[in-house]
Fold this sequence. Notes:
By secondary structure, the protein is mostly helical. The chain contains five helices and four strands; from the N terminus they run αβααβαββα. It has helices at residues 3-16, 25-32, 38-46, 74-84, 96-99, and strands spanning 23-24, 59-60, 89-90, 93-94. The longest helix has 14 residues, at 3-16. It is globular. The mean pLDDT is 93.
Amino acid sequence: MADGEVFSKIYDVVRQIPYGKVATYGQVAELAGNKRWARVVGYALHLNPDPEGIPCYRVVNKAGNASSAFAFGGINRQIELLKAEGVQFIDGHVDMEHFRWNRHIF
């Protein structure tokens, strides 16, 4: 599968993350077709061609931490965008129990 096709699948999943929710890199990878693509998800989001339409700031690590390498304004900007949607943080990370997107593969 070509990178463009993989990235397209990743972007399609990220577009589905609802307002006020987050998903993990691994969750996006699995929903895009391969649970081993978590690092590829990070790379694809770093190269996000449409930050307005593909809300990459809604993707965090499995502990709920924002990315120190957030390509569109840094970690503080990612946190700011999430808080603007009502996402709450506990001790510096997203309250995953309440704000993790619950979409699963069937």
